């Protein structure tokens, strides 16, 4: 059995689980594949592939070319970049692992605090021999707006209350009763964008949510407001966001996710002082990786033994 571990950017995958327990030849790929042809070439001859979230897409036309692949394990409980129906038709089992949502909520607040208090700029100043460079903002008494109030949004709301923030939320299916259970006020979409001092995105990417935050929504925001996205890049219209940031129509953005990942080296977001950027590390923590890779090994062992696996549906 040959196993490919994909997108191990930090060169750590082999240290987070007992891969030696598998009777297999194991290769960890540390760089993203350049394109679909590179995926097919790189995975030729591999029976099993372990995908790290949606870093490498597996649409139907790629799966059809991976004629040796029999098991595809994705970290986490879902992966919208895998064509499940095509995999089923081709006889490829798609399994999944467990997940931890707390780290992404924690990173959301790391981004909020860093952006509001100008921490990156102050850190650079101190390291360069300088001292205070600006005046930070406040959270107490301000309004936290949540675009989505599911598992992650609810956790972010809980922390917001600890900072003394008023919390409002909107999503397509959110009810006033559901919001009240979380200590949050449900509002209309236009009110959410108009009132929020911090607007944090916590929706699942779908055809319905792609581009949901566009030019009109950004124009409705306060000129001092901060937009935070730790969900998926395409939920926010990238061109509209770039325009709003360049023209200082909003106070800033704190982003962990992007339309294209890894973010190209010369992407214009990298040059904007009012954009705080992290490289999609919301789930990149020791505890999460232990769950991901431990469960992946269990899935592979079960599949090799003909036992049931955590099938992704």
Automatic annotation (TrEMBL):
Keyword terms of this UniProt record: NAD, Oxidoreductase
Key word NAD present: yes
UniProt xrefs under SUPFAM superfamilies: Formate/glycerate dehydrogenase catalytic domain-like (SSF52283), NAD(P)-binding Rossmann-fold domains (SSF51735)
Residue ranges constituting the D-isomer specific 2-hydroxyacid dehydrogenase NAD-binding domain according to the UniProt record: 110-282
Alphabetical list of CDD domains matching this protein: PGDH_like_1
InterPro entries found in the cross-reference section: D-2-hydroxyacid_DH, D-isomer_2_OHA_DH_cat_dom, D-isomer_DH_CS, D-isomer_DH_NAD-bd, NAD(P)-bd_dom_sf
PROSITE patterns: D_2_HYDROXYACID_DH_3
Keyword Nucleotidyltransferase: no
Gene3D superfamilies, per database record: NAD(P)-binding Rossmann-like Domain
Residues covered by the D-isomer specific 2-hydroxyacid dehydrogenase catalytic domain: 25-309
Family indicated by similarity: Belongs to the D-isomer specific 2-hydroxyacid dehydrogenase family.
Protein name: D-2-hydroxyacid dehydrogenase family protein
């Amino acid at each position: 059995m040959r196993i490919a571990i994909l997108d191990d950017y930090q060169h750590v995958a082999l240290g987070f689980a007992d891969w030696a327990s598998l009777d297999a030849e194991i290769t960890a790929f540390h760089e993203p594949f350049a394109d679909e042809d590179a995926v097919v070439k790189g995975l030729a001859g591999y029976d099993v592939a372990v995908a790290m979230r949606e870093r490498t897409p597996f649409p139907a036309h790629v799966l059809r070319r991976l004629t040796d692949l029999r098991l595809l394990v994705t970290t986490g409980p879902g992966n919208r970049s895998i064509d499940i129906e095509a995999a089923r038709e081709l006889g490829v089992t798609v399994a999944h692992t467990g997940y931890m949502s707390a780290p992404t909520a924690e990173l959301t607040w790391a981004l909020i605090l860093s952006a509001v208090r100008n921490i990156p700029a102050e850190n650079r100043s101190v390291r360069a021999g300088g001292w205070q460079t600006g005046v930070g903002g406040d959270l107490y008494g301000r309004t936290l707006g949540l675009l989505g109030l599911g598992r992650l949004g609810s956790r972010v709301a809980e922390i917001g209350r600890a900072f003394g923030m008023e919390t409002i939320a909107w999503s397509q299916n959110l009810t006033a009763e559901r919001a009240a259970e979380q200590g949050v006020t449900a509002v209309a979409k236009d009110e959410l964008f108009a009132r929020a001092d911090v607007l944090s995105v916590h929706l699942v990417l779908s055809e319905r949510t792609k581009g949901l935050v566009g030019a009109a929504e950004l124009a409705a925001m306060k000129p001092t407001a901060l937009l935070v996205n730790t969900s998926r890049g395409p939920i926010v219209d990238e061109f509209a966001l770039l325009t709003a940031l360049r023209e200082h129509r909003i106070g800033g953005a704190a982003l962990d996710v992007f339309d294209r990942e890894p973010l190209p080296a010369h992407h214009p977001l990298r040059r904007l002082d009012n954009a705080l950027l992290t490289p999609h590390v919301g789930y990149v923590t020791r505890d999460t990786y232990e769950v991901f890779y431990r469960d992946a090994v269990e899935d592979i062992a079960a599949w090799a033994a003909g036992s049931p696996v955590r099938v992704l549906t």
